[in-house]
Amino acid sequence: MNMIIEAWILTIGNEIINGVITDTNRETISRELRSVGISIKGMSSVGDDIPAMIEEIDRAMRMSRVVVVSGGLGPTEDDKTSEAVAKLLGVELTLNELQFERIKDRFLQWGRPMAESNRKQALLPVGSEPIPNDHGTAPGFMIHRNGSIAMFYPGVPRELSRMLKEQGIPRIFRTFGQPKSIFRSQTVMVYGLSESRLAEILQDVAIDEPGFHLAFLPRFPVIRLRLDVSGDDVRAVEDVLSQKLSIILNRIGENVIAVDGQGIEQVTVGILRERNLTLALAESITGGMIGEMVTRVPGSSQCFMGSIVSYSNDMKTSLLKVSEQTLQARGAVSHECAREMAIGARSAGFADIGLSVTGIAGPDGGTPQKPVGTFYVGLATPDDVLSRGFLLPGPRDWVKTLAATQALDTLRRWLSGIRLHGTEL
Amino acid sequence: MNMIIEAWILTIGNEIINGVITDTNRETISRELRSVGISIKGMSSVGDDIPAMIEEIDRAMRMSRVVVVSGGLGPTEDDKTSEAVAKLLGVELTLNELQFERIKDRFLQWGRPMAESNRKQALLPVGSEPIPNDHGTAPGFMIHRNGSIAMFYPGVPRELSRMLKEQGIPRIFRTFGQPKSIFRSQTVMVYGLSESRLAEILQDVAIDEPGFHLAFLPRFPVIRLRLDVSGDDVRAVEDVLSQKLSIILNRIGENVIAVDGQGIEQVTVGILRERNLTLALAESITGGMIGEMVTRVPGSSQCFMGSIVSYSNDMKTSLLKVSEQTLQARGAVSHECAREMAIGARSAGFADIGLSVTGIAGPDGGTPQKPVGTFYVGLATPDDVLSRGFLLPGPRDWVKTLAATQALDTLRRWLSGIRLHGTEL
């Protein structure tokens, strides 16, 4: 049997539809189901409102053979999911003695008294099948209706994801059989091309084929390309993935940061460590962001000496030895200053490579000659010193993030022997 | 007229239903609508699949008078929302010349060539009303059907939220009138108390009353408390809000960072600028994160001199003048080193105040005496030098974030004349 099982995900709670919390249970459920070959038809959320729940559960069960619901099983007045399900099925709620014992046991184990309200959590719709909760108090339950199943789980993320994996997915397979579908995916990180330019370059590759999908996922300022391949045969699936991947890498070339979802900081630290090179930074416009990014990578202390965040001109001259003359004649935001900062970083940090950034993040500080977004990156290596200038768009946080990424990408390109593009400024 | 307007929110994209991205547009739309008194009936998401979109748009428009849709208006093959709407209405797509001109203008303004694929973004269903996009390329549009409206927006969060506020909400009011219900909310930022401790302290205040709701919204490592008050009468609503707020502020006291949703970096920069004080940093464990946080605040260059990110011991001795003896006898992660780093930062940065952090972020580098998470903050002021030690929990990124927040909170408390708690280490 190799049929496709489609699922609908429903999350319940006023705090969800009112935008008070970011509901991540939907993504958790989606990923768990997809990892075993179940595809997702859609998702929805309603508040703690019985008529809305009844309508939504009913509809979801008509549309998909599997419905996974989370939320509304807690002990409080707000939690009305079991009641809604009982109304939908036209049955009563009844105390499930076994599940009630489990709840009592759990409180004993915690050494805490059980509140009377927790008894409510063992009230299940007549005819439903309990789904035991080994990680919290509220049991889940499953119902059958017109050839579909719906499973109800507590909204506590940790309990939900374990119950779904340990109890829910086996129940789906017992009911509908296990899908034979194989699923592989790969993420390519791209920096230096706009989304629309990328879409043009990959126009023919991006067309959906049965079992293949290419998604464009911008995560500012990087674009992630996600290749999803599915099918019956492991070999065929992996062949399609490697074929498509090689076309894409060929087309995008040097703008590819990584093929395994790594960020620019991981890639850069990786090359530095591999080549046994050390790095020191001189940051102005980024305020420390490049150092923060680099030190996200475990083991970065092997190659990262430090950063001199010289926001004031005094620190530029005293610590980085930028000349007074450069500051006066060219200004702190200039090719010359970026180069002197890079040299200063290399020397003050006792490092092989010095990387610097200077610019105007805004909202104030721009002039007609040097508007907000004016930005220079400097690179000092054992043999050479260079600088590049750009005009970065957007508000302050964008400009900072773009500046940090542009600097690390300049270093990545230099380390990889890629010719650096001419500067804009 | 004081009728309730109910809205349904629909987000579109395979990456959403497949759990590849966390969809925060739903919450953004919900909050924008609720802030003007529109209530939310529910939310759903479907993939880039025309039949699924048609079904979901049709259903949402039957259930709610206002439907807000985001996603699927980009330039790529995946973006099929306009096509789905045209099919639903039984009309063609046609090029909207005015919107096409606006897209071309935007590329001119950016100084970048427009890709052919961007033309697609100006193809709108015949009979729909364009919603101009002043913040990006894709225009939105609005349709009417059986007494309901549906509005379609691009999925780019920044464009979506501005377009909804500036263009969408006025269109809803023009169609259905403005709801009279008054809605006020306030956000209190708390640092230094656990969520369960906070829940205990506020147990009686947290009980829902008609028109009042208190939400606990942890945003690591800060907890946001959101007070929502609604009702018919402005005066009564504002009275309830200020009453509840003053009870909460009284109970939490010095652990309140701000009452207007400001972060610790905004509050700290605000006090420094008010008092005309300058700050320099010496960062080790945080890698530049504190400088990055401080420079998020526009105008921070008025008080922030810079940061010496001394990851290597060489930089600690050469730039911060930490003594060799301290490093050998006490180590780089110690009260003594933190104090010398703070003094060094103050002096190297020519600043009134020096703030330093040193610690072990992990996953490697811990010892039985100084496990991962060991962390010291130092503060050097014109009159005094002090240090505090903590053991911070969690993985590398948590430890860094906690260290940065703890350092800024130490400074905030000192600047506000709050007695600093004894150190843990």
Task: Lay out the secondary structure.
Two copies of one chain form a homodimer.
Chain A: E1 6-12, H1 14-17, H2 25-35, E2 39-46, H3 50-63, E3 66-70, H4 81-89, E4 93-95, H5 97-110, E5 123-125, E6 129-131, E7 140-145, E8 148-153, H6 157-176, E9 182-190, H7 195-201, E10 212-219, E11 222-231, H8 234-252, E12 256-258, H9 264-274, E13 279-283, H10 289-294, E14 304-310, H11 313-318, H12 324-329, H13 335-348, E15 353-359, E16 374-380, E17 385-391, H14 396-415
Parallel strand pairs in A: 1-2, 1-3, 3-8, 13-14, 13-15
Antiparallel strand pairs in A: 4-5, 6-7, 7-8, 9-11, 9-12, 10-11, 15-16, 16-17
Helix pairs in contact in A: 2-6, 3-4, 9-14
Give a structural overview.
The structure is a homodimer of 425-residue chains. Chain A is 38% helix and 24% strand. Chain A is α/β, with parallel strands linked by helices and 425 residues long. Chain A has 3 domains: 6-176, MoaB/Mog-like domain (Molybdenum Cofactor Biosythetic Enzyme, Chain A), CATH 3.40.980.10; 182-258, Alpha-Beta Plaits (2-Layer Sandwich), CATH 3.30.70.2860; 264-415, CinA-like (Maf protein). The mean pLDDT of chain A is 92. Strand 14 (304-310) of chain A pairs antiparallel with strand 14 of chain B.
